[in-house]
Amino acid sequence: MARESTCRFAILGMLCREPMSGYDLRSAIERSVGHFWQESYGNLYPTLKQMAQEHLVELEPEEPSRGGRVRKAYRVTEAGRTALAQWLRRPVLPHVERNELLLKLFFGAQVGPTDSLAQVERSRSEAEGLLAALRLIDENVRHSRGDDPERPYWHLSIRAGLLGLEAHLRWCDEAREALQRMERTPGSTKKRKAK
Amino acid sequence: MARESTCRFAILGMLCREPMSGYDLRSAIERSVGHFWQESYGNLYPTLKQMAQEHLVELEPEEPSRGGRVRKAYRVTEAGRTALAQWLRRPVLPHVERNELLLKLFFGAQVGPTDSLAQVERSRSEAEGLLAALRLIDENVRHSRGDDPERPYWHLSIRAGLLGLEAHLRWCDEAREALQRMERTPGSTKKRKAK
DNA sequence: GGCCGGATATATCAGCCTGATATATCGCCG
DNA sequence: CGGCGATATATCAGGCTGATATATCCGGCC
Fold first, then answer.
1. How many CB atoms lie within 10 A of CB B146?
2. Domain total in chain A
3. Which of residues 40 through 79 in chain B touch A, CB cutoff 8 A?
4. Which of A60, A83, B127, B179 is least crowded, fewest Cβ atoms below 10 Å from its Cβ?
5. Average pLDDT of the segment spanning A147-173
6. Domain boundary residue among A41, A63, A89?
């Protein structure tokens, strides 16, 4: 009925690089694409089970060296590789991203600009933190991984993050100014006291 | 267990402006905040029912003028207004937005830059369409609604969209160039033929 | 030796949300 | 009067999150 699980393809893409367990998948995803994609265990484990039934992935033969410790490492099958390749070619279908900050601002019109201003400030400092973190990762990638064929792709995704965050910071500054102007000229916003 | 329904607050915010039915809510949301927030009927109707049970909203007394046509118009209660005001003050909790385009690009490293290039081109022209549409809305808002107290908030949300889309376009251009460079120097990407 | 805490590891579930589907009525135009 | 598009509500499969439960391994510390 609804849209196709994207989690399946995140799994396939990661397993193509190296066979892994569900636990490892989560951290590998976090480490490599964590700034624009994350997966929860509650999504990964059931999806892996399903995909194994559909023969898109399969369990690696268990090495008994690890004692009684349970550990299931998965590996892509040829069918899995094909499914991934097809998905990669399929166009990304457009989707309106929900923006909770903007929604709160919009309804803030009914309350007054002061609370909105606080939201914008919070968002701004959060974005600054993310920006600093991304710049650090960028430096890291630039210096290590001299010959990794994935390197230009890392750089592309980091650039997307940087440009997006910089745009957001610029918007925050605009919004701050506009809201401060509105605070000085009370206008027709009705004030509602906090609980 | 999981996070709080944001739909509830979208409903409350909209009903504070004017009492409405579920159907009207959907179009009012689409018209006013549609470029950063949307709600589906499958979400609205059950949520409205719940909220009525919790006395956050209530049915307006039915006017019998409309014949047998079923129509339920909801109105906010005082409790609803309080709940909205509290939500507006609560900080937006940070969330990593999934970006399917970047995911496809990242895994594109295993396939070659040609398909990635196509994805970037598609995304670019989609963004250009959205940008043109937003600019039109911006013009509209600028000229009509001369004294609407909501006007500066409209402008704020439109500016967020514009800056974001412009940043995305700039990224698309960077990405295009990088991928074209990679196409010319085959490097170590393995090619996989389509099905 | 024994104990604790943090990392490793898998599983399950409530609840939010989307997109699809079903159903029925109303007003208008030809 | 028949068809079509807008109005209107409802339901459901299935994706996904965040919380919770459970158990093991390993290293450090007393």
1. 7
2. 2
3. none
4. A60
5. 94
6. A89
